[in-house]
Amino acid sequence: MNPTEITSQISNAANMLNIDKWDYGASFSNDYSVQVDRGAAKQLKASQKQVITLRVWNKDNLVGITTTSDLSETGIKKALRQANIASEFGNKNEFTDFSPLAKDPIQIKEVDKKNPLGIKKLLKILREAESKLIDSHEAIKSIPYNGLSESFYERIYANSDGAFRNYSKSQAAIYLYARAEEKDKKPRSSGSVKLGYGVEDIDIESCIKEAAKKTIAHLDYSSIKTDKYLICLSPEAFLTMMNAFSSIFNARSIIDGVSLSNKNSIGELISIPALNIYDDGLNDKNISSAPFDGEGTPTKKISLINKGKLENFIHSESTAKIFNTIPTGHAGLGSKVSVSPDWLVIEKSNECSDLNTSLVHTNYQGDFVYIEELNAIHAGVRASQGSFSLPFEGWLYRNGEKRSIESATVAGDIKYLLKNIINIENEKELTTSGISPHVWINELSITGDE
Amino acid sequence: MVSASIKSSEIRFGECNKKLLEEVIFYGISLGADFVELFIENSDNSNVLAEEDFITNVSPSFSKGAGIRIFKDKRDGFVSTNDLSKHGLMRSISQAIEMLDISKKTDKLIFNGLEKLKDYSKSKIDWLNEVPTINEVSEKLLLSTKSLKKDKKVVVRKGSYSRNWQEVIIASSDGTYATDIRLHQTVGLNIIANDAQYRSNGSRRYGSHGIPNEFRLWDHEKASNEVYESSMNMLYADYVQAGQMPVVLANKFGGVIFHEACGHLLETTQIERGTTPFSDKLNKKIAHESVTAIDEGLSEGAFGSLSIDDEGMEPEKSILIKDGILKKFLSDRAGELRTGHKRTGSGRRQNYSFAAASRMRNTYIAKGEFTKEELINSISEGLYCKSMGGGSVGATGQFNFAVEEGYLIKNGKLTKPVKGATLIGDAKEVMPKISMCGNDLELAPGFCGSVSGSVNVTVGQPHIKVDSITVGGR
Fold it and tell me: Which partner for B249 in B254, B257, B330, B393 could form a disulfide, CB atoms 3.0-4.6 Å apart?
């Protein structure tokens, strides 16, 4: 069934049920993935998925919602009926409407949509990658977590007011997490993830090299003394931290009382003036970009922190109405619409004269802890309190020499962290979750085994 | 030999699908598969959220789909689809056959048809009609959020309810043919308290399986009192000082550490990956002699209980560790095939879009002989972890868990509350340090995310003492 047919089917069913106002979001996908274990195919997987989320408004303008995978005429009618029943329990405290921007033009990135390679080719490529990674160092015994996948999907948004938009794209991903062991030492594990529009776009060699380099580098480890340390956060680690505390920018979180910000926080200095943060879902480097959000609002670039000051919040239709502004293209689709950032871009502002530019991770000779990757975000971040306590992979640098840290956590407070940035390096790096330079923090608590 | 004639061209729940299923399985076997399994699911779920004094979200959802798995030697191919027609299922079989590169049709047909249906759903047909209506749920959730309004410091009050109803048909080429209905209900309360620069959270979750009336019986007053007290106790707490120290872990959800740090390492999927340090430790000591640990799917009403697993096998009570000695691994069909460990009725999956894997069910440390007070009295300086938050385990077995509500222990007594604590370690080192187990075993529901998606589980333990562990803090 094509998007026009589905829209027409929903429209007809809604008419029969006397439902005047509705919208829907749909997703159709075909996914293929492989995993290997020392040359043997471990699990080969294919899936065909269809899911549709329908919202209806009743006579009192309250919203009800249903999600279903049954796109038959019966299935759609059942979903509309259930959404209508759910609308009786719609939120009387906050009215949701169509996005006023749901018919505005959207930018669809011109990228080549790839064709499926198929399971056999995926398997061949992953087998070769696994073999190369195991052969890269004698201590690498296995690649316990690995996978190569390709996905082909279409997303649709339409409503009873005539809005209709859709896009389709392809995406591929590889991940290789190696496990290395040496005699009388604990096993170590590290890895790499790469994305592309298709498998042929992915730099698999660099994924292998990166996974090998990181895993081998961590073989020579030692414990670290519990203390406060000068910290350098890798681009990936700083992006992880900012995404974990993105409720600071999130209007939904503010209304729900779970953000460190409030309605009047715009203009507040929340970090050093040298920091700029944007949300840029349409960035050319963002493989997962979507031209519109769950409510059909076009995706756009928005400045979140400008010279240290909070400049904008991200919004859905209903939060924008409460804040007397327009939606920003960050909504999910639900009876309670969620809001989340797309893809963060972090950079140094032009008010950076106070930074200590001698702090560059590749040549600084003093003592510091380099945090390469933060783990267990869901468990270690208290976004509503602003605190974090997170295990990490990283190195202790002393006199220009680096040694992998055996096991440690870093703890602190996001407000303290943002106000105690002492350098933002010049060079920005592309990661799977955004773009950022290395960022230095004056002091954070590290708990180690010593 | 199976008759090829079928009348029905699509799977219909609540009706006999035997001939259609046999034809699909026969098709896979005739194309050269060693084994064919069909998992067909119909689900009807509902979520309700109350915030402050309003219902802010009511979300029903429905889904139908099939997961088709084919084995050839020790390899497997898995295809999921929403198309439950004969054509759709056979197309999925062909796709799985192609994935595994099976080109040679088999000479001997190793499928003798499906056995007589084992219908585990008989007494459960009315469950969906017996669960509380949205109206009932909404009213009780609003009562619970109202109960949390005890103080002006309480700035966020939330109550959430989730009901998952699942009807499954499982059929495979070894003759397995079974159908079942599952019903899981959970209710959770969350609170944020705020006073000037101080902030604290409190949360509790309750859940059951197979008890339609459970939510009606839920004591929301007691639950809201617990959450409120926890949040108020932690509001002005200082950050804990990091270091090595003895800890006492509370019962119920304290068992999450055993689940995450040790339980996962006793699943055959971990043996297959080579990521468990215990793969060669069967019948060897891996824990302190005071530790006996069990995983089972049988406790009535428990969140991880099941009549059959997602491969059609009745669950067993698996004694994983007996007096510190490793006795058993949890195994599914693929685990038995690849590691030799017998199936334990532990093949589980989130839904039809995942292949089953060996997963925990109700997992707990058995009760010991001590009182909670005796455990605390045995420590001169340490930490009491009354309520645990989430955690994670890395690829090398290292774990990290947040302590949601903690108190310092000094000279055998509980003293001031502390926040920001995390427990860090690895199972191999920590299991021998569990030196005392209390006599107050209790279970708590949870969701476990792993290779086959998110499944309902129970964790549990009595109060336990760990002689020394790294506590992360500031």
Answer: B254
- Give the pLDDT of residue B368: 97
Say which residue, A91 or A112, is predicted with more confidence.
A91
User: Taking CA atoms, what residue in A is nearest to B277?
Assistant: A187
Structure tokens that stand for B294 in this block: 């069990």
User: What is the interface size between A and B, counted as CB pairs within 8 Å?
Assistant: 214
Chain B residue numbers with beta carbons less than 8 Å from the beta carbon of A86 are 58-60, 134
- C-alpha to C-alpha distance for A92 and A86, rounded to whole angstroms: 13
How does DSSP assign B80-130, residue by residue?
EES--BHHHHHHHHHHHHHHTT--SPPSS-------S-EETTGGGTTHHHH
Dump strand ranges (E) for B373-463: 381-393, 398-410, 413-419, 422-426, 434-437, 442-450, 453-461
Chain A within 8 Å of B408 (Cβ-Cβ)? no
A94 vs B contacts (CB less than 8 Å): 56
Instruction: Check if A143 contacts B (Cβ < 8 Å).
Output: no
Question: Is A320 in a helix, a strand, or coil?
Answer: helix
Q: What is the pLDDT of residue A167?
A: 94
**Nearest residue, CB atoms, B134 vs list A78, A79, A89:** A89
User: What is the maximum alpha-carbon separation in chain B?
Assistant: 78
Alpha-carbon dihedral angle through residues B242, B248, B253, B259, given to the nearest 10 degrees: 80
pLDDT at residue A72 tops 70: yes
**Cβ within 8 Å, pair B242-A445:** yes
In this complex, is the C-beta atom of B48 within 8 Å of any C-beta atom belonging to chain A? yes
pLDDT at B108: 66
Residues of A with CB below 8 A from B60's CB?
Answer: 65-67, 82-83, 85-86
Give B-chain residues touching A256 at CB under 8 angstroms: 51, 156
Task: Output the DSSP codes for A205-250.
Answer: HHHHHHHHHHHHHTTSEE---SEEEEEEE-HHHHHHHHHHTGGGTB
Please state the rounded mean pLDDT for residues A388-404: 92
User: In what helix (H) or strand (E) does residue B156 lie, and over which residues does it extend?
Assistant: strand B154-172
3-state secondary structure of A348: strand
B:283-302 residues touching chain A, CB 8 A cutoff: none
> Which pLDDT score, from 0 to 100, does residue B106 have?
66
pLDDT of residue B1: 35
Return the exposure string of B288-318: e unless at least 16 CB atoms fall within 10 Å of the residue's CB, then b: bebbbbbbbbbbeebbbbbbbbbbbbebbeb
Beta bridge partners of A396: A369, A403
Whether B424 has its CB under 8 Å from any CB of chain A: the answer is yes
Average pLDDT, chain A: 94
Which of A81, A92, A102 is CA-nearest to residue A19?
A81
C-alpha A403/C-alpha A397 separation (Å) is 7
Whether residues A91 and B55 touch (CB distance < 8 A) is answered with yes
| pLDDT at residue number B176 | 97
Cβ–Cβ gap B273/A188 under 8 Å: no
The residues with which A348 forms a beta bridge, in sequence order, are A275
In chain A, the percentage of residues whose pLDDT exceeds 90 is 85
Residues of chain B with pLDDT under 50: 1-8
pTM of the model: 0.92
Using a CB–CB cutoff of 8 Å, tell me whether A338 touches chain B.
Answer: no
Contact between chains at A70 and B422 (C-beta distance less than 8 A): no
Q: Give ipTM to 2 decimals.
A: 0.88
